[in-house]
What does this fold into?
Amino acid sequence: MADAIRESAGGYTLLPVDDVLLSRRQLFLTGQITGESAADLVRKILFLQGEDGEKKVTLYISSPGGEVDAGLGIYDALMLSGLSVRTVCTGLAASMASLIFLAGKERLILPHAQLMIHDPSYSGGSFAGMKPDEISQYLGSLEKTREVLVHILSERCGRTPEEIRSLTAKDTYFTAEEAVSFGLATGIAKDLA
It folds into this structure.
């Protein structure tokens, strides 16, 4: 982890860059979304909410996605925090990361970044040894999750559920311009300030 040098009346102090950025109300979502990474980000959201719920928070995202439940926890925390959140896609925000990106009131994407949306996928291992009712129950749960994600995408992008379902049936990538045109992003970032 990198350190930042701060000068004060008492001399120089080394501070973790993450602490400096948090004090500037800048959060990061990178790598795989897991229960652990989600809990860490939610803690930071709650901290910033307690510090000053009125000041803007910027969440920079470059993530391949990950666990749906963990991602929905981050999305809900952002939406329910009352914070003014700006999300910025800095690389690829795919799958669950693209839904978290939608939690921003202002959603910016860097000129060469991409967003990718798709349906949730089966990740439970083998169906071997499972009974038909168990398989059916799991598939029903997967379909309910799909509808939750379709609802979020539809609501935040201003698109019909049918339009969303047709795009999420496969991996659908959006360039910065396409993301703005479709309603995923509200603009292309001109700078990171």
Remarks:
- The beta strands are 3-8, 11-16, 26-30, 57-63, 85-94, 106-109, 114-117, 172-174, 187-188.
- The two ends are 23 Å apart (CA to CA).
- The first strand starts at residue 3 and ends at 8.
- The chain has a mean pLDDT of 92.
